[in-house]
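Ticket #349: bound-state structure for zinc ion.
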Amino acid sequence: MKLKLSDYTIEFGPSQKILAEYLETSDYSSINVLVDENTKEFCLPIISNTFDEYNVITIPSGEENKTLATCEKIWGVLQNSRVDRHALLVNLGGGVIGDMGGFVASTYMRGIQFVQIPTTLLSQVDASVGGKLGVDFNGYKNFIGLFNNPKIVIIDSEFFKTLPTNELESGYAEMIKHALIRDEKSWKSYLTNSNWERNLSNSNLLKSVNIKREVVIEDPFEIGIRKILNFGHTLGHAIETYSFSTPKPLLHGYAIALGIVGEAYISHQLLGLGHEDLEAIKKYIQGIYKMDTGHLTDIISIMDHMRYDKKNRKNKILFSLLEGVGKCTFDVEASEELIRESLEYTLNV
Ligand SMILES: NC(=O)c1ccc[n+]([C@@H]2O[C@H](COP(=O)([O-])OP(=O)(O)OC[C@H]3O[C@@H](n4cnc5c(N)ncnc54)[C@H](O)[C@@H]3O)[C@@H](O)[C@H]2O)c1
Ligand SMILES: [Zn+2]
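RESOLUTION: The complex was predicted; output attached.
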């Protein structure tokens, strides 16, 4: 199964086989694989038989290492190994490896080619598609970077076998988001499947990735429609950032799951999303994300984080909201009072 974009394809299935087929059609001077300590242990063995000879570059895992300092180390290893302009970088890992590895490849000697093999659910259905690459800088996320595309993205659910459950749940929030903004049929099928992990079939992954694909093809640089991918993220980011100042920081997808419930509430109030749909969204999310939100009740601080969101225009807090399930619109302003109410609704305060 594959999806096509203008200059690359996204293939679904056994990564070793797909990678071997791709390498047969190409002639790289060297193969370099970027991993972190977890993907080196759990994911590299799944693809390593593909290569006769290859260099492994290992970096420490975690968002705190998604920095220019780590890029310098990777550029340094490539330079010391005399890697030339005709080499390939294979990024094997989650969104941190994919974003940073893509950035390193795109800038090393003005750009070498790279392949994305995302190994978390979040990076498979979200980070690996759309061309955004980069690193964090001075505490700001994804502040330095560029748009560029890999030669191929390989999506293999085999990697989920070793992925911690909370990481899997975190990625699933983006699948829920994709269904709610543009795919009512998938949303209905998710609702009827009592075991959500069964929704992670290749065909469902493809449907979810395809929603991001269609949206980024229409609007690659986020001038308009691409903003619908931010559904759940105005409230979600603010909750996520606030949670970092508490003893229990949230994984991205957990915060987005809360953001989806809150923004569904605003959608109901402003755009007429049905009350039954709103309740179904809340119930579904609460059934999966068993979160104690007791430490997140400082609504004033969450509101402060939202005022500084880089998506705001002229001091207005803007949302991407649902007119109905599968129908999302963007740049909708909500009053502070309604935002506060929506936080109370999602955080049960
Ligand atoms: N470029 C984009 O459009 C885009 C979109 C969304 C998110 N992102 C970025 O993605 C990043 C988050 O990605 P993430 O959630 O994948 O986090 P991550 O890359 O930090 O991976 C999460 C953890 O899982 C481990 N891991 C990865 N695959 C594994 C496997 N198969 N088995 C066991 N452990 C495994 C990693 O070592 C890490 O500890 C953020 O930096 C975010 O900015 C980018
Ligand atoms: Zn997200």
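RESOLUTION NOTES: The two ends are 45 Å apart (CA to CA).
TICKET STATUS: resolved
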